[in-house]
Amino acid sequence: MPHTAHxxxxxxxxxxxxxxxxxxAGVAGGVLSTIAVAGAAGPANAEPVTETIEMPTINPAGLxxxxxxxxxxxxxxxxxxxxxxxxxxxxxKAQKDATKAKAEAVRKSEAEKAExxxxxxxxxxxxxxxxxxxxxxxxSKSSSSSSNSSTAQSSNQSSQxxxxxxxxxxxxxxxxxxxxxxMGATGPNSWDCSSLVRAAFRQVNIELPRVSQDQSTAGRQxxxxxxxxxxxxxxxxxxxxxxxxxxxxxxxxxxxANPSKGVVIQDLSGYPATGAVRVL
Length: 280
Prior knowledge:
Helix content is 53%, strand content 11%. It is α+β, with helices and mostly antiparallel strands. The protein has a domain at 157-278: endopeptidase fold (from Nostoc punctiforme). A six-stranded antiparallel beta sheet has the order 3-8-4-5-6-7. A hairpin with a 6-residue loop joins strand 6 and strand 7 (263-267). Helix 3 packs across helix 4 (193-202). It is rod-shaped. The model is unreliable at 139-162 (pLDDT under 50).
């Protein structure tokens, strides 16, 4: 045995600091705790996990391009919507303008028609006024000529004066053909049946009653089988007649018939009169 076998070492034992010992104790404790938790969480024979999950690789350039394309698509949609709104507004305005223009055209057309009708009516009234003035002048001359005839021709004078008066009455009535029928009207461009008859006989200074009932008894009853030009025809019973007119010859009479016909010449056979009176 070597002579140094029992010689104790002269190196002093190293003293470990308290902090180093505490650190080692903490590490050991942590490892033991981890092992204990793993053992409690899984079966003793659990296989180790061998599958790995790969995280997707992010390409910054591609992501930026995708964002740009999305922004462009959204901008295009917004542009299309705005364009559609503008087109709809333009179409609505065009429709309103067309409707307004059509209404204005119709209004102008109606106004022109109304003005043309007024001019035609004014011309017709002027023509009738001139014709009536001429007829009145002829009747006045005829009456003056008859009154200056000699006493020796008195019988002929009466006949000629009656004939001239009848002619004046009939001429006046014919000048009113085409005038309107209006109940209660008394001329000069609209009449009812009795006002027209009354106005005609006023041309020869014969004053008749205003209404049909009284006109049907104003003269001598002559019936309808022996009519003469100028006889007053009536429909309904004498004293309660509802319509009058004047016989103008050839089986015809002239009257203010009704609102749809106005003043017309009609065939007596189509609407036979009840009776007649003679005042001339």
